[in-house]
Amino acid sequence: MVQSNYTFKIVIGGAGGxxxxxxxxxxxxxxxxxxxxxxxxxAFLSKEIVRDGTRAMLSLWDLGGQDRFRFLQPSYCAxxxxxxxxxxxxxxxxxxxxxxxxxxxxxxxxPNIPIILGGTKLDLVNLRxxxxxxxxxxxxxEQFGLSSYIxxxxxxxxxxxxxxxxxxxxxxxxxxxxxxxxxxxxx
Length: 187
Description:
Largest sheet: 6 strands, mixed
Helix content: 25-40%
Radius of gyration: 16 Å
Shape: globular
Structural class: alpha/beta
CATH topology: Rossmann fold
């Protein structure tokens, strides 16, 4: 039985070319696009999900990763309940922007916003590289107090649903705890 309806705004950032738009297309349509256009400013997407009997609408804001769109991005963060920052696991230099994205999300959405670090292009990472990539990502999670780290592949679909389910589960837990607190204070 479906119990409640929620809408959660989730902002998605990361350096240009890391595969954010391709990954979102895989999540929404279960299709891999090998060639996507540059996201100009922001793209608005949504998906309704049901988790543990609760219906939620995920409002996904895909922020363009190019530097020329930086001045617009803070205004897009207002009202966000969670964020995902992606980096390309085959190009660790894209992870150097994680700090900037985290700072922006915390300054313009909420200081306590849950943020997941997502590694993209898992299918292109060789086993020799995997340990060092994961170690680096775990250091970023610890350094910036991120909620989780999940590796993904838009090409194969690996962990694509899982990263969004993880963030949805965190948000539903928060919403249910807030609802319980309100109900307790009313009694």
